[in-house]
Amino acid sequence: MRALTYTSFLGIACLVLEIFNLRKIVVPVVILALLAILGLNFTEWNGSSVSFYNDMLRADNFALAFTGLLIVTAAGLVTMSGSFYDAEETKLADYISVIIFTLCGGIALVSFSNMAMLFIGLEVLSISLYILAGSKRRDIRSNEAAMKYFLMGSFASGILLFGITLVYGATGSFNLAQIAVYASGPNVDPIFTVGVIMILIAMLFKVSAVPFHFWAPDVYEGSPTLTTAMMATLSKVAAMAAFYRLFSVSFVNNFAGFAWILSVVAAMTMLVGNLTALNQDSFKRMLAFSGVAHAGYMLLAIMSLYHNSANALFFYTVAYTFASLGAFAVGISVMKRRKSEKIEAFNGLGKSNPFLAVALTVFMLSMAGIPPLAGFFAKYYVFFEAIKTQHLAVVIVAVITSAISVYYYFKLILAMWTKDSEDIEATTGSMSYVAIAAICLVVTLALGILPSLVPSITQLASK
Amino acid sequence: MLLLVILFLPLVAALAVYLSGNKLAAKVALVAAVAEFGISLVALQHLAHSQFEGLSYTHAWIANPNINFSIACDGLSLLLVLLATFLVPVIILSSFGTEQANARSLYALILLMQFAMIGVFISTDGLLFYIFWELALIPIYFIALLWGQGKDKAFIQTATFKFFVYTLIGSLFMLVAFIFLYTKAGSLSLQSLYGLSLSPMEQLCVALAFFFAFAVKIPVFPFHTWQADTYTEAPTVGTMLLSGIMLKMGLYGLLRWLLPVAPQGVLTLTPYLIVLSVIGVVYGSILAIQQKNIKRLLAYSSFAHVGLIAAGIFSLTNEGLQGAVVQMLAHGVNVVGAFFAGEVILRRTGTLEINQLGGIRSIAPRFATAFIIIVLASVALPTTNAFIGEFLLLFGVFEYNTWLSIVAGLTIILGAVYMLKMYQYVMLGEKRATVSAFPDLTASELAVFAILIAAIFVCGVYPKPIMEIAQPALSEILKHTLG
Question: How far apart are CA A198 and CA A251, in angstroms?
Fold first, then answer.
């Protein structure tokens, strides 16, 4: 679990670079450092799953795999931040260090083995995001987004803390393994169940599942787009993984009672997310609702909790992260040039910049789950787990909503390829956006053709 | 190896075409497509001499769930592969002489589509089949959307989108069925699915899910509403790909994946399915009679013809299946010819409205001769390829139920009505203003008609080899279906 330590240092190092006025090299240095940490992270792969700091963290394959994904996501975001914050050069190092601290929170969230660490991780992640959401000080929508996000987030944190306290009251421990022992014992206190339900609500809040999703669209729309990208990818993936980790370790024996709640929530999340996305004319809002819908598909993996579904969840998050990150890279590049966040801003992109248009088309098709792209296998795996655990009805809902989702993804595709725009000059976009889009494109195609490239992470759950 | 080459050559060619630039794209595509046809003839020779090495290939692909990249080619698959490899060069040749915007993308998409369709015909693993099935949808969607012929761009978008979503919904149910089958069988290879024993209820659900996916693609009544608009709005090359080859994917799916995998479900549903198919035959013919636009008329006629093929398949008799195979090939050739005739008229007059045309025969005799042969083949005149196919199909339906076969037999009479009426209005009679300058066929157009007409007569006079090649595969399918 050295990744967490080194990333924390990296965050501080960023600020130090700023002091020494080395702002220019901060982006390349951070990217290289993140890649080095990524390499280090995987030296522990398939290790003995050691625990750290009195069993606060545990470096099993589940934790390492998600840590890897989060580091890659953060590296992508840092790459784009160089050109995204070009108007505010003086603050670049600050922003990057906050991104790195978000990553620290995320790493803690995917590798905790103690409730206290879960809470700390979630707070580190959230507080960094509150800052970033409000980072456009003079933009009223950015302020609104930060405020909303902060209020809703602290509300959720409060509920989580309350739930943790009740569980502690019943079990006398914060340790996941010890809670699991209590939970599988003969006498389970009703307080324990209430506590678990509160934790469940807080987690649903964080992953923006229906009916706790209402904050997401406003916050996504108001925040600076790079921060939106971060909420949609890094923060959502970390929260989803934490959700899974908590339930698969501690509450797996009492899970039957919660599975039906989750299946209803998943079905509603897919329905509401996809149906509301239909009517959006803003790119960011559309992706926000599509992100809500994707949370629903990921919940299918959590709902069918058993040893293989961690793999399904991991694959889904990988496919989703790369498609979203790529879509945001293209989106930022286009919206910056056309100075509009509407879907009309993408009109005629097929002519003015075919590469970006092809890339965005592939990301949309992947999110819609069309083979042979990564998103298809992502859906295939989660459907597979759900059918295996007898949740056929939810899968039918998922199938129908998948077909609905095509409608809004294609709105964007149609805008790019069939509508004309007055702005016919080649939209070149900054190199960093193009590079991220290219990398995401390659990954999305490669995972669609060779899904086995994503390693199996089931070492954790078999314990 | 041979089969791998057949599968991947179009993909490589698509890349080469894209890189060769707009000027050379059409020629490179044609050379590649002809080479592909040549290689598939080699495969035919191997099969005819019972040399099966090279005609199947399996490679481990995904470990968990256990999915193999496995392809194989028996007589049935090979005939459809041949249909695809024969028609694609013809379709490419048919577009010669017209300026295509962004030609390299168009021809690359055509070859990409060929790749996917061949993949559908030779996959022997369910998930692989599904992936190719969906992959075929993407190029044709963009071909129809971006090179569409209609004047109203918004309508093209609606029509093509309807087509996409409609087929996607059908396919998604097939995906659920496949996942369900996997949880039962632990594999999606054809052998393990054929050997699976499911309860009658499970079979019924699987059969319905598969039928829905295939019925949209074919299309079977009442899932046909996307068809006429898409056929009319798409560029003619797209319409040819759709009607000539792509809808055969659905019919092939019925034969390979529906009948033997869920036989009891099929037997329960047969009475309904065959009636739906026959309704499509009559309904399509009646709609065709009323059409004023040549492409729409041909779209509905195609709907009627494939309805008969579906009915023949659901008759579950050897004759019905044989007829289905022969007619799939015949319909592919004839419908491409008919749409090409429409395209020739459109290029010269700028319209496809029947009441604005007339008297073309007097100034373009060669075109008139070619067109009448295509028309007669479409109405199944003896010695043309469709005759033997429709005869066998009706015979199959007759064995199932006499009355149904009589109703289905109307297709021949009604088909003659709308095809000959269309020919009469468009080609004969008084010369109209729109056709005042109607040059006769160019060399490349003549070549397209000559190739198609040769195929019509060769298959019409001597269809025995086709039936012999298909027979072992069809016997196998019937054995699994009827137990």
Answer: 13
Considering only the beta carbons, identify the residue of B61, B63, B157 that sits closest to A418.
Answer: B157
Q: What count of other Cβ atoms lies within 10 Å of the Cβ of residue A72?
A: 21
Cα–Cα distance, B442 to A364 (Å, whole number): 43
| Cα separations in angstroms, A219 against A3, A230, A428, B154, B212 | 30, 12, 29, 34, 41
Summarised one tens digit per residue, pLDDT across range B411-451 is 888 888 899 988 988 888 887 877 778 888 888 888 999 99
Residue A463: pLDDT band (50, 70, 90) is very low
Q: How far is A376 from chain B (nearest CA, A)?
A: 9
A87 pLDDT more than 90: no
Quote the CA–CA distance of B355 and A226 in Å, as a whole number.
59
Averaged pLDDT, B192-218 = 88
- Chain A CB contacts of B109 under 8 Å are none
Whether residues B64 and A311 touch (CB distance < 8 A) is answered with yes
According to DSSP, the β-strands at B67-72 and B56-62 are antiparallel
CB atoms A418 and B153 under 8 Å: yes
> What is the DSSP track for A373-405?
SHHHHHHHHHHHHHHHTT-HHHHHHHHHHHHHH
Helix (H) or strand (E) holding B288: helix B263-290
Domain residue spans of chain A: 254-463
Instruction: Name the closest residue on chain B to residue A448, using Cα atoms.
Output: B131
- The CA distance from A348 to A356, in Å, is 11
pLDDT tens-place string over residues B86-115? 999 999 998 887 778 888 888 999 999 999
Interface pTM (ipTM) of the complex? 0.82
Q: Average pLDDT, stretch A86-115?
A: 88
Contact B179 A418 (CB under 8 A): no
Chain B CB within 8 Å of residue A16 CB: no
Inter-chain CB proximity B131 and A311 less than 8 Å: no
pLDDT in tens, A115-137: 999 999 999 999 999 999 988 88
Pairwise CB contact (< 8 Å): A383 & B142? no
Nearest to A407 among B145, B165, B180 (CB): B165
* Separation of alpha carbons B437 and B427, rounded Å: 14
Residue in chain A lying closest to B173 (CA): A399
Alpha-carbon gap, residue A235 to A126, rounded angstroms:
8
Which residues, 6+ apart, have CB-to-CB distance to A210 below 8 Å?
Answer: A265, A268, A269, A271, A272, A273, A292, A296
Q: Which of B62, B130, B172 is the closest to A452 by Cβ?
A: B62
**Over residues A293-316, mean pLDDT:** 86
∠ CA B135-B138-B144, rounded to 5°: 145
CB-CB: which of A365, A383, A418 is closest to B179?
Answer: A383
Which residue do the tokens 């108001």 mark? A222
What is the least distance, in Å, from the CA of B182 to any CA of chain A?
Answer: 9
Chain B, nearest residue to A417 by Cα: B146
Coil vs helix vs strand at B176: helix
- Asked if B175's CB is within 8 angstroms of A383's CB, the reply is yes
